[in-house]
Structures are given as C-alpha cells and as structure tokens.
Amino acid sequence: MTIVRSYSQGSVLAWRIFFCKFKFQIIAFDVFQ
Q1: What is the Cα–Cα distance from 31 to 4, expressed in whole angstroms?
Q2: What is the pLDDT of residues 1-22, one digit of tens each?
Q3: Stretch 20-27: mean pLDDT
Q4: pLDDT of residue 31
Q5: Cα–Cα distance between 13 and 8 in angstroms, integer?
Q6: Using H for helix, E for strand and C for coil, what is the string for the chain?
C-alpha cells in the first residue's frame, strides 16, 4: 500500500507542476500576443 500511495503522490506532484507550467505558458501567450 505504501508503495502505491507514494507513487500516486509523486504522479499528483508531477501533474501539478505540469499544470502550473501549462497555465504560465497560456498567461505568457496572452500577454505577448
């Protein structure tokens, strides 16, 4: 259980970082257009 739980936490962290990058790219695109 602990291995699966740590894996899910890692994937959530990676997804959160990816979403923040994606949102920042959208904001930068809106600003520079």
Answers
A1: 41
A2: 576 777 777 788 888 999 999 8
A3: 88
A4: 80
A5: 9
A6: CHHHHHHHHHHHHHHHHHHHHHHHHHHHHHHHC
